[in-house]
Structure of Bis(5'-nucleosyl)-tetraphosphatase [asymmetrical]:
Amino acid sequence: MKINIIKAFGILLCRLKKYNPVTTGDINKFEFLFLKASYADKHWTPPKGLHENNESGLETAVRETLEETGINKDKYKLLNYQKTLKYNVKDKPKETTYYLAMLLNNEENVILSDEHTDYKWIGSHESDTYNLPESLADLLKEAEEFLNKEQL
């Protein structure tokens, strides 16, 4: 019996954080865009969604990011990092692949769709504040390590 796996794709959009490590003591240089789902009070994720028709995973991620945030692909640079998270939703297997991208202009406006009620730029150290599942918290840490290693 074949198990149908729900597959979703998204962009883990990051930006350089406005900070001063001398005055704040904050060593985290990057923030990641998270959206608050309209259907759940404490459900925060990067923009993502299910693929349509014959889209590639990346095409789905780009489309969903535009639909959910108003940010077009010419406003960010895709980086050479992606990760697939595997988990269950209502006892059904789901895989979400995130592609890491750097926002080109830190002041870019986020225009939410009706699927979301709020957005935040959060650092990897803020996972607990937003009740992120361990897999998403790990994704942020790993993405931040990649960004630091690439010296972006």
Summary: The chain has a mean pLDDT of 90. The first helix runs from residue 21 to 24. DSSP finds three helices and seven strands in the chain. The radius of gyration is 15 Å.
